[in-house]
Protein: LacI family transcriptional regulator
Organism: Aquitalea magnusonii
Amino acid sequence: MQDHDNLTENDCKMTVRIKDVARAAGVSVATVSRALGDGPVSDELRKKVEAAVAATGYLPNLSARRLRSQHSHTIGLIVSDIRNPFFTAVSRAVEDAAYAVGMRVILCNTDENPQKEAMYLRLMQEERVTGVIFAPTRATAQKLDPQQLGFPVVLIDRAAPPGHADAVVLDNAEAASLLVEHLLAQGYRRIGGLFGNTSTTGAERHAGVVAAMQRHGLQAEARFIAPTPEAAEQAVRDWLREPAQPEALIASNGLVLLGMLRGARAAGVSIPAQLALAGFDNDNWTELAGPGLTVIEQPVYDIGRTAMKMLLERLEDPARSARKVVLSGRLIARGSTAHNLAADAGPDGAGR
Amino acid sequence: MQDHDNLTENDCKMTVRIKDVARAAGVSVATVSRALGDGPVSDELRKKVEAAVAATGYLPNLSARRLRSQHSHTIGLIVSDIRNPFFTAVSRAVEDAAYAVGMRVILCNTDENPQKEAMYLRLMQEERVTGVIFAPTRATAQKLDPQQLGFPVVLIDRAAPPGHADAVVLDNAEAASLLVEHLLAQGYRRIGGLFGNTSTTGAERHAGVVAAMQRHGLQAEARFIAPTPEAAEQAVRDWLREPAQPEALIASNGLVLLGMLRGARAAGVSIPAQLALAGFDNDNWTELAGPGLTVIEQPVYDIGRTAMKMLLERLEDPARSARKVVLSGRLIARGSTAHNLAADAGPDGAGR
DNA sequence: AGGTGTTGTGTAATCGATTTCAATGCCATC
DNA sequence: GATGGCATTGAAATCGATTACACAACACCT
């Protein structure tokens, strides 16, 4: 009398397949598939199918679906380090936008390592992803050929040679110029900078600083480092031990700025009285550290959202020529660059 | 004369299947599959297959592989917000550990929203993930039944009722006690706290504070808020406008601590002269903000790594009873709780 | 010699869905 | 009443891999 088939007992340990739903609903598997998707199915059968799905606890197998339909509904997001608040913010924007159009996101960290980049790009191919949003190192950006990859790529934060790939980046020259002009207006002249040595972004921001300084007949001393707080801290400690001291330092991103501040603290210099600090990325903490740090705020959420939008547009029209969207940064002046009229301030300048 | 089959032309637009590799190597598809995996294949044929793979540019289709093998080699990581540095650090640890054993990670943000949690758990089932690492809200933690889900779950940061699921958490009572004892030793008596209202963690840290205070015959005033900087800032601004003012405030996580500091700044109170601040999570910036913030440092990387290890152990032995690993936090005392002997210090206390 | 493993290989079944294709029923039209 | 078109439906092919099974070749024992 008891049924020995895997029928009604709703949460048995066996996984329930579309075939089981079809049997429970008294229809064919094709009808179930169509009812779950958007195929033409009569209201009557659709209701039956929905009831059967609920009764059996059916959950589609995405691997099977992807294999047959040849659509992964997945995009890859390859960044250098998710611990950098810039990338966490961008990734939230990308994820929100992706899930809104029914796509999943695979997130990968490369640690600025070209080998890891190659590995993850290969993984993306094996996953047959719909597209990829990618912040490449300089080395990879140069030899990247999106045609070869089999899926569209949108670069973020860092651009490739023009015409190669879609990209959404900051206007680094303009932003660097904003920082330099601000520092000059505050009376600083001997301006130095610490720039990441792995990306085009570090190079572009450096170029922007040099160009802005040149317009005033000045020179900037630049040093190139691994874009980590640790490297930046060490570089600043070394720098401040040398005879010729800068009046102001510019950091090419938020992590470098963090290390810079640590280095300055360790060296015992007070900010801004003895040394001004400024940099990129309006990370949460920059407002609260010391006298507040002067930064360029990037439209982080916009960058992620725009990248996703460009990816979708590219999917619609694979033939269109590559576009580069350039967004503007905003200068947020704070206490770390407050004045260079040394000795007119209180003993520390940390008040406010 | 020219071959019209999809043979040699190595990067043709058609995707190359295992069948093509087999033909190119002059062997069966089974042999190719075995050569790529770990099956028994003679050295001679293995070499031929490798050559054919290189020549054709073959890339396995992971969907097909997963469908047939019934192994997704994927784990889900469900956190409340990747913008919280605690979770970014944990996620890096999880990813590193996962990729080291050949597993991929799907990362999801729930925004402390039970509906999103349910949605992502369902997604995990559809993906047929190997397992999940999950930081649930209190609501979900209580009704969660890992048996029902079809894959093992390891909870992080927040535990479920005992025996329900594996978990790796901080010793919240101990950590809260460390904070309270430190504040008392510094001379603070009227201690308040802001705790997240969505997780068991907020509740446990609150309970720990209350217990520690009681041991000294004191009471703590607690307020419960959404665990975001915005909510914390507003709560502190409101609090500081009331007649009865606290001497010290404790924040139940890094984001709340951030908002707390903003609120205190906005209210114009100086730290620690007028108000001491302390909290959880040794986020990068806490060392650099104001006089430095006293915090409990969590072993973030360890938490992620341990969670992954427990997940793997659970996969090996699904029958073992649930374990809860409790890790200890470390007190890092900084200037934000420096003294309560008001007026004996300099005008600001920000020096050091 | 004759059985018994062992190793390496190919054929074909299989994973669980989507999609093609043919068939059906119904209605409007000539 | 025959015909054509349209909307639904089911049977079977298909996606691209892994793996069960059969089998051949060869070594190793009594």
